[in-house]
Design a protein that fits this description.
The protein is an alpha+beta fold. Helices cover 25% and strands 34% of the residues. It contains 9 helices and 20 strands.
Length: 367
Amino acid sequence: MQQTGELQLVGVSKRFGEVVAVDAVDLTIPGGSYCCLLGPSGCGKTTLLRIIAGHEMPSAGDVLIDGESVIGMPARSRPTAMMFQSYALFPHLNCLDNVAFSLRMRGMPKIRRRERAQQILDFVRMGGFAHRMPAQISGGEQQRIALARALITEPKVVLLDEPLSALDEFFRVQMRVELRAMQQELAITFIHVTHTNTEAIATSDLVVVMDHGVIVQVDSPIQVYDKPRSSYVARFVGGHNVFFGRVVESKKEGDLIELSNGERLWAPPGPVSTDRRRSFAVRKDCMTVSRASDEPAKQWEPFHKVEGVVHAIEYEGTRFKVSVILNKEEMIVALMTHRDFMASGIDQGDPVVAWWSPEDVHVLLED
């Protein structure tokens, strides 16, 4: 078999007493791809990463790399390398010796391991920092050293546990671009744990969304963002407003759905529960907000709009985030361009209409 760094998880579970951290996970990550495990704290993504690394034993299931099981194999013997969230650099060793440490443990002669470490430092653009101590470099530079240390053993799979969480926004954006570029140049598998949707969407070929120890969607970043399968994914990834209601009329072209506040909205055909309830979503950037006294596009009335009150307005530089309360419990968000927002004349507390095109309604398949 050609060795590509393909990872397979087969029925992997992990229990800590009565707590199920990972529940019967099946997943294949193609070799040479950049995969992000995405989900909130406690969803099982880091436990899954530690199982792959060999730092946790699964309660059930198998982990295969290029078709060979690594269950029972110690972490140091697996064709993986892990970059920890804390970077875990040795404070008493300079950058060169930090990177060369694993080769030292393998018995490689000092001259050879230092030559190799210098090559890796050059690759991550830290060649000039070889003789500095970790305390003498910035957080972003420490991250590069930690990555170099992970790469020096020439692993098939690199595991990254929240690698960008300690960086400020400017360096976080810069480093995610560089991580992606390095992965593509090396053509090895990267598995990156994050709770930040923009990070996952920006870096990966494959996004694995997790919730309560199970995988709820595996797709390309575009599909996860644009075509979420469930309300959980739609809300967690953050791109959609989700509407729930009861089907009061069904036609060939779709369903008329009544919300809890009595408003009725149209949605294309989709799965309906036994009690006639169903859900759908509309992307936030496909939604426009107008003052209630203004008339939205008439061809979309009355089943592609909702009425509410502006709760908050946030300026995000390239757009305005407008939060609208529909009733005491429900809220939707519209992301409006600077031009559209300024033309609308809306302000906090105004009664408004939020409206959208019929083509922008997305059917949720798993609610």
